[in-house]
Specification:
The chain contains two helices and three strands, in the order αβββα. It is of the alpha+beta class and 88 residues long. It has a domain of 59 residues.
Length: 88
């Protein structure tokens, strides 16, 4: 094996070790996720919402912030629900 290939593999190992939450589950497939195709970073979560006390409007929280906070879904996706697949 050439030195260049070995060096490339070494960089890949170091790179993966430095990515935070690489082993954590994604929100993808969760029944509560309202995915925004144009701006995925502002996708909403219907599991956690706030009621506006002035007009009564329900405001859903951002999925990304729910995953970062421990009191809600958290990094381990504690409340993630996926519908079972049915073979037809």
């Amino acid at each position: 094996m050439s030195k260049g290939i070995l060096l490339g593999q070494y960089k890949n190992i170091i790179y993966k070790q430095s990515i935070k939450n690489l082993d954590k589950p994604l929100c993808t497939g969760c029944v509560y996720l309202v995915y925004n195709n144009s701006y995925p970073e502002i996708s909403k979560c219907m599991r956690f919402a706030n009621k506006n006390l002035v007009d009564g409007k329900i405001e859903y929280t951002f999925a990304d912030s729910n995953r970062r906070e421990h009191g809600v879904c958290g990094v381990d996706a504690k409340y993630k629900r996926v519908l079972p697949t049915v073979d037809v």
